[in-house]
């Protein structure tokens, strides 16, 4: 049997431009214009605005690069181990146990279905025929003003 190839795991076809093709991090807004905005009425001097924007971009870029170079490989190793353990757990433990449970419970389900259809269903249908002409009316007596509604069954 031929091994299926996954374009997601193949390093030779990695897209270095679009690094979030599934849009996992759309909620993260990190551009200056998405984080800082001065409304009308409060304005900093233009030189302070430009310097602040430049400091923001430079510090964000340098800090991100430093963190990704130092911490990202270790974190990627931990995440790889975590997802490998998770995949192992699902493939070798959870799915087979669920399959055993489903096979074991199928005979009980068949027994329960037969019991319900042969005993409970006729009984509830008979009760339905017995009570199908019952009508319930709710009205307030003319002399009582603060009493709850009386229920009359006819």
UniProtKB/TrEMBL annotation:
Gene Ontology terms, MF aspect: molecular adaptor activity
Q: Where in the cell is it found?
A: Cell membrane; Golgi apparatus membrane; Membrane, Caveola
Record keywords: Cell membrane, Golgi apparatus, Membrane, Transmembrane, Transmembrane helix
Tell me the Gene Ontology biological-process terms attached to this UniProt entry.
Answer: caveola assembly
Membrane-spanning residues: 63-91
Q: Report the membrane topology from the UniProt record.
A: Peripheral membrane protein
Q: What is this protein called?
A: Caveolin
Q: Which organism is it from?
A: Ceratosolen solmsi marchali
What gene is this protein a product of? LOC105365070
